[in-house]
């Protein structure tokens, strides 16, 4: 009850007087606000210690100890300090009018990626968005709804799972594509996705890039186990850099092809790499291991409130679990991206 009172007060504090009327989110666990709580999958985080530093100490289904980047970005636009999950029954269309999240942890551009953990595929996220549009028009009328749809900022963040959960873990895509061909395949899906959103009225879009995924604690642990020492997986990082370059090229091209659009590439790689390489410069003490449990390989259900190894102060750690950043890291990255890229929407 306290949690919902806190959120209600926060919702009343932030109004739609902001220049940007709403933020609309698509993607994976980097931005999932709790949609996976409402589907049959093991990819969940709606239990402690997840969310222990969120408003009211609530485990919402965000894969962090607190907020995720899109929550901070919403706040930076003068909107609420969090973006609610579309499938969360605690919210309704009046709440979603200023921000909504369709993201699903474990998903990717590739439908085969979402099949791995039985999560919401990207095409289904778009279908939920279409449903949202109908509800919004019914709630506000066509004129106000169309204004929100056209002036909202659309934030997308996915791709890591396509490589780490799918391509490098399962054999099917590797038997079909070289790594370069697979990147190109994902870029064609990203292009189709952006064009679908444009066709549905979106005009301000941010296409998110990949982080240095070879430096996730899980990948560093794997490197250590196979005898490469406590180092990042350089090959994975090179793939992330190459894929980001392709996404950046896509953004440049689409800006010329889609009249009236403003599409930006939000690249977390450089700032994330700086944090990982020099954590003390950002006030961190640990970057190789995560806060939750031993910090070597645990995430999701392996990171629960009964684990005695979980750290007491997540602000000292770059990573919350072996795959996801802490709230502090999310804040640093999102504020950097807002200052350097996303503020252009204002």
Written account of the structure:
The chain is an alpha/beta fold and 346 residues long. It contains 13 helices and 5 strands. Strands 2-1-3-4-5 form a 5-stranded parallel β-sheet, with helices on both faces. The longest helix is centred in the last third of the chain and has 24 residues, at 234-257. 51% of the residues are buried.
What is this entry, summarized?
With about 350 residues, this protein is an alpha/beta fold.
Question: Count of DSSP helices?
Answer: 13
Q: How much helicity do the residues have?
A: 40-55%
Total beta strands: 5
Which strand order spans the largest sheet, edge to edge or round the barrel? 2-1-3-4-5
* Sheet with the most strands, sense and barrel status: 5 strands, parallel
Radius of gyration from the CA trace? Answer: 19 Å
Helix-strand topology string: HEHHEHHHEHHHEHHEHH
**What class, by secondary structure content?**
alpha/beta
Overall, the morphology is: globular
Give unreliable regions as ranges: 2-6, 11-16
Q: What amount of the residues lies in strands?
A: 5-15%
Amino-to-carboxy terminus distance: 36 Å
**What's the pLDDT, averaged over the residues?**
94
Main attributes?
five-stranded parallel β-sheet; 346 residues; single chain; disordered N terminus; alpha/beta
Fold blueprint:
Elements: H1 2-13, E1 23-27, H2 69-76, H3 93-96, E2 99-101, H4 111-116, H5 122-140, H6 142-151, E3 153-157, H7 160-167, H8 172-176, H9 179-199, E4 204-208, H10 217-225, H11 234-257, E5 262-266, H12 269-277, H13 327-340
Parallel strand pairs: 1-2, 1-3, 3-4, 4-5
Helix pairs in contact: 2-13, 5-6, 9-11
